[in-house]
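SEVERITY: medium
COMPONENT: batch folding queue
REPORTER: lab tech (J.R.)

DESCRIPTION
The queue accepted two submissions in a row. Attaching both inputs and their returned structure tokens so the on-call engineer can compare them side by side.

ATTACHMENT 1
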Amino acid sequence: MSDLEFPVLGGWTMRRAGMADLEQIAQLERQIFVNDAWSPELWRQELASPHTWYLAVVPVDDPVVVRGYAGLLALPGSKDADVQTIALAPDVRGVGMGRELMNQLHAEAQRRGVRDVFLDVRVDNDRAQQLYHSLGYTDIGIRKGYYQPDDVDAIVMQLPLASNRPAAESTSGGGPAAESTSGGGPAAESAGGEPAAESAGGGTAVDSTAQPANGDQP
């Protein structure tokens, strides 16, 4: 499905995710995001879209088994991209996979000519925020009540991709409005120095997703 080579971390690696992974991803989504999990139908749309790019975290010795995922949305011609979601099962956390997933999403954004990557993270997910800040993201706004039904606010973060920006261009601005009252996608965060789950449409979670807002996981 891809000519890209992905690293091996603690017996885990990643590969491109596809429609064949739908059932496993939807099940993992429900386990991680419980209250704000994306529906199987929403996941079907995400995996089928020509504008999204998803990765699945799998054991090196059994690449059919999905234990984490992350995705990027980048519309044709747009200079902005969103981390749709990122989530890791508990047995995958703590080996640096969350950080590596984010790095791979950033690399794909660069290949698509994106200048700025955005994501949403729960205000109460300190670990995920630390990961994103360490990757160069800055806080640019708040989405009130973004994560439902928990009614938790989301911090909107932005990462400028310097390699795709004109030298004279400022690294600020160019993204979504600093505030919004409703989310459009899952977000994900995770722990162990990496998001556990977030969801996008502005969201992320190294152990969660991002369309209609769900949680964040790193």
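ATTACHMENT 2
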Amino acid sequence: MPRPRLLLCAARRTALLLALAAALAGCFRLEVDVTVEDDGAGSFSMLAAMSDQMLAMADGDNPFLEAQAAVDPAAMPEGAVVESYAQDGFTGTRWTFPFAAGGDVGASIDRAAQRVGGSALTGANGPFERFELRRVDGEWRFQAVIRPLAGDDAPSSLGLDPQSAALAQQMLANGWYRVRITLPGELLEHDADRVEAGALVWEIDIFAAEPRTLTAASRVDAGLPAPLVIALAALAILALAALAWLFLRPRAHSSP
């Protein structure tokens, strides 16, 4: 027969597990998605949603929808869209905005995220310790360090046994925490968990106690510099005009 102390320990672990699930919003979806086009422009989006079951337990209070309602349209970057998300029993919001081509895309995204959501990606309340995405010498380089979501509340810190930790993972199996990056050109290297339809996907462990570094690189065809392309096009037009004048100009007739 189990000792009272063992029963007490088991009860504490169960209560701790339930508290952990509640602290992590039970079941949620978080996703950061960046797509870079061939010309260096692209789009950034962030999805944040809670399960409808957890919303029912919280009397329908959804902090993501509340944040969406608080957005000032005048403060949003041009082309930014904030829309509701409702899929597979999850409700929340998705923030999407375009960014122009430039050398330091990561910094542009950081500034735009602060304008839309009120907090930069790498700010004190942001999900990343570092977020860098830039083009250097014909290569796109991505490097980010993502903060642990659970922190000191990770199972290893809480002392959950493997069985309890596995149960916690199952409770949150329908949700996810992902970073998705799509780079142009030929992929050189990456440490993503998988490649899905051309996008690099990192599945972030919500119970991790340590930061995780994400890296990727691709090579793009540099092509001809834009000024040279313009100059060649102008020369081609002049050459065609000269040929047209030679063939179409009136010819002088000799006297009989």
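NOTES FROM REPORTER
Residues 1-26, 152-159 have pLDDT under 50 and may be disordered.
No errors were logged for either attachment.
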